[in-house]
Design a protein that fits this description.
The protein has 492 residues and is mainly α. The protein has 2 domains: 201 residues, MFS general substrate transporter like domains (Growth Hormone, Chain: A), CATH 1.20.1250.20; 221 residues, Up-down Bundle (Growth Hormone, Chain: A). It has 18 helices and 2 strands. Strands 1-2 form a two-stranded antiparallel ribbon.
Amino acid sequence: MTTQGSPDAGAIEEPAEGSHAAVAAMLAGAAALGGFLFGYDSSVINGTVDALKKEFDLNSFWIGFVVSSALLGCAVGAWFAGPLADRIGRIKVMIGASVVFVVSSLGSALAFAAWELTFWRVVGGLAIGTASVIAPAYIAEIAPANLRGRLGSLQQMAIVLGIFAALVANYVIARVSDGGATGTFPWGGAAWRWMFAVAVLPATLYGVIALVIPESPRYLVKKGEIARAKQILQRIVGAGTDVDLKVGEILRSIRTERPVHLRDLRGGTLGLLPIVWVGILLSVFQQFVGINVIFYYGTTLWHAAGFGENDAMLTSVINSMVNVGSTLVAIALVDKVGRRPLLLFGAALMAVTLCTMAVCFQTAPIVDGNPKLGHIAGPVALVAANLYVFGFASTWGPVVWVMLGEMFNNFIRAAALAVAAAAQWIANWLITVTFPWLSGISLGLAYGLYTAFAALAFVFVWRMVPETKGRELEDMDKLQGPTRRRAKPSAA
């Protein structure tokens, strides 16, 4: 009998000699589809903002709350995904996330009140947060050591592709509908409802793929299913690797593990180890430069600045294309140039481009309550916005995640990552929920504030952030003080 998650459940044939890298890449790509859904579901709201304002008669505070509500679910989903995956397995959690994606997408599409839409967005956030943890964990556990960096980068690429797909879908649906996002889709119903509903397709595909890929060998070893773990490892690492030795290494690692608590992060003068504060502030600055304003409110922003709705949506698609291409640049450079130089360059470029946008919006004449960019300011702001996206996506976007994965020592890594990720979701929520209010006062004020944070990020990296390029994970203690003594298993 074939069971879900078994080695023969995935129709993954025994690879020929030398094809194990392709098998690992296929499995990593399948898991990274969770990142695609992460990007899609978090950005699909972009094209619906104006329609939701009109449909539910929302003021700036409530539209900010509805747009940011998914992020509250993200924090909860990310926090509990790890322990749940350790209890029931990575594959079952992936399947559960896909089901939640489907349900939340349909619920959002059928919502008839703002509170109902908010509820379903929070539910969708649970799946987003889960996918943000499970996909990279699964990839790390199935990837051979020599491929782990490249395969791990698939998660970030999948996220930006998901953002791109959501914006393209919004653009196409608005173009074919009578009246744009607020109009009627040819098959019936409001166009904005179809923008949410389309997410059912990739969510269903994610669930189907999760049903046929094998379980993580590390999880199987932990559960005592050694034979299954060996079969899967053989397919991933190839015939030239001693699978018994690999299983033995996993067993030894599991035996020396003990639960890590938040108290293990305590130290220093501010209550936490200095390196933990570095991780938290990297996460906060990554969001406080305002990048998600572009991907959550971009269409509304450009529409308010004088672009037609279709042109505003097309501009958001162009921003997303720059995002995808820039992520490829980061993947190519991060191991060659180093982390600190990329972060410094990105912060400087974002400060300049955000300042340019702030000036354009602040000096634009106000018509019907919105700044109207002229023939000069409009193109300048558009170029600045795309350079800003390039500055973020080629540096702070992926590089912060790379550093968070490697800057903490082996003992505190899981707990420190949880704290840094929680800080990132909270910072994301703060920026997202406050933008409508800030922009209601002045777009120049909003972008001026993000300019200040980008400048502070440059100073922070220059003064406080260590370079981790070329360091072994076991050497990270040198960055954070004498914490190795805590790594001894407790008597309990």
